[in-house]
């Protein structure tokens, strides 16, 4: 496919859509477009192995789990995932269950992001989709024209060019693509937090049937799961914390103190085989479209992990984007793409609000005064002790309908 006009690359390929980033958002977009007969090539600087072995969040909205099955990605989520019909909020040493099913008729699925990725990567392979992992030297060119191009170097050192009608930047929270929107034409909304999460994976039995979000005078903790024998837990820490300062014993002591209560609840302990400090922030860049480039998922927005919104939000973006791109590349033309941003952004800002709200509700800010702690307990009591409060939490945590103002 070598071409005289591009003598400095080894091959030139043309497809309607090229996707920079082959995480869940990029691959799900490629899958959805593929089902409509639109070819998309996805590229990622990481190897498939790197993506598969990086721990990420674990909660899917029921609608996202259903989409994986109904769009033909895989039905593995129904076999290996676990439906959770509620969560526990623990504060002042007492447990309070929020019954999603009873309150809003919805549930969530515990199914790790790494499994979502594996299912999508397998589906791309099965369906003959092209994904290049482990690439480098990505250049995105001519996005203000109707003929954008992406150049990259393959793992074998050869250089390639993909010509497309649209480029999608689904390249995650450290997105290169979003930097291509000129500085004077973009707005970046950012909120930093004075705490991070310390995440662990432990070989231990489950401590509870559902997730536990714990507020305590010592700070926040989240008890999640991966399987009957591997558990995922987090506790609030300083963003500068070093994992080397944390022995297994100190970690268990910290976690136990944050969930301790008058009911005598204790976590099941076991050997810890992964420890990571995870800083987070709230971030949105607008616009989500610049010329022939569109941003999706973490490239355009990130949320604190507390509300379990990040992956769900990214997959919502690409659901809307796939639908809009299919119309755009069909009979409607370029102006149809303008529908993407308003529909995606409505959910983005709802999720930003919820993620911020539940983060400040459950974490202890450094230097918090006794008043702050008591006020938080008052707010938590309002959440669990009123039907409106419980319903609000259930509705926000389980997700919103797609593209409606309801
Ligand atoms: C996880 O299981 O990793 C997880 C669950 C819920 C959250 C964040 C992370 O809010």
Automatic annotation (TrEMBL):
The protein's matches in InterPro entries, at most eight in alphabetical order, are given as: FAD-bd, FAD/NAD-bd_sf, PheA/TfdB_FAD_monoxygenase
Residues in domain FAD-binding? 15-354
The species is Yinghuangia soli
Taxonomically, which superkingdom?
Bacteria
Q: Which Pfam families match?
A: FAD_binding_3 (PF01494)
Which keywords describe this protein according to UniProt? Oxidoreductase
Q: What is this protein called?
A: 4-hydroxybenzoate 3-monooxygenase
Q: Name one GO molecular function term.
A: FAD binding
């Amino acid at each position: 496919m070598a071409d005289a006009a591009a003598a400095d690359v080894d091959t030139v390929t043309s497809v309607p859509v090229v996707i920079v980033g082959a995480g869940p958002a990029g691959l799900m977009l490629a899958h959805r477009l593929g089902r409509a007969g639109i070819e998309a090539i996805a590229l990622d600087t990481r190897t498939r192995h790197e993506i598969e072995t990086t721990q990420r969040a674990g909660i899917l909205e029921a609608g996202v789990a259903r989409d994986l099955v109904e769009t033909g990605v895989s039905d593995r989520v129904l076999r290996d995932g676990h439906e959770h019909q509620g969560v526990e909020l623990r504060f002042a040493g007492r447990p309070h269950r929020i019954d999603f099913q009873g309150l809003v008729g919805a549930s969530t699925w515990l199914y790790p992001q790494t499994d979502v990725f594996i299912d999508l990567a397998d589906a791309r392979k099965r369906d003959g989709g092209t994904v290049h992992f482990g690439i480098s030297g990505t250049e995105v060119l001519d996005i203000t024209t109707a003929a954008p191009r992406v150049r990259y170097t393959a793992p074998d050192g050869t250089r390639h060019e993909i010509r497309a009608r649209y480029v999608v930047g689904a390249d995650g929270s450290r997105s290169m693509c979003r930097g291509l929107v000129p500085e004077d034409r973009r707005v970046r909304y950012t909120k930093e937090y004075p705490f991070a999460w310390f995440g662990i994976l432990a070989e231990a039995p489950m401590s509870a049937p559902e997730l536990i979000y714990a507020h305590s005078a010592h700070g926040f903790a989240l008890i999640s799961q991966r399987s009957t024998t591997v558990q995922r837990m987090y506790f609030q820490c300083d963003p500068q914390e070093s994992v080397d300062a944390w022995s297994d014993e100190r970690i268990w002591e910290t976690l136990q103190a944050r969930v301790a209560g008058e009911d005598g609840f204790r976590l099941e302990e076991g050997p810890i085989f992964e420890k990571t400090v995870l800083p987070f922030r709230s971030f949105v860049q607008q616009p989500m479209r610049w010329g022939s480039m569109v941003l999706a998922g973490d490239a355009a927005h990130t949320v604190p992990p507390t509300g379990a919104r990040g992956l769900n939000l990214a997959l919502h973006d690409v659901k809307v984007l796939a639908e809009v791109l299919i119309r755009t590349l069909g009979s409607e033309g370029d102006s149809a793409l303008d529908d993407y941003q308003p529909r995606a952004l409505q959910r983005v800002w709802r999720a930003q609000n919820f993620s911020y709200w539940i983060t400040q509700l459950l974490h202890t800010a450094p230097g918090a005064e006794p008043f702050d702690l008591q006020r938080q307990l008052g707010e938590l009591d309002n959440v669990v002790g009123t039907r409106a409060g419980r319903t609000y939490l259930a509705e926000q945590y389980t997700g919103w309908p797609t593209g409606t103002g309801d």
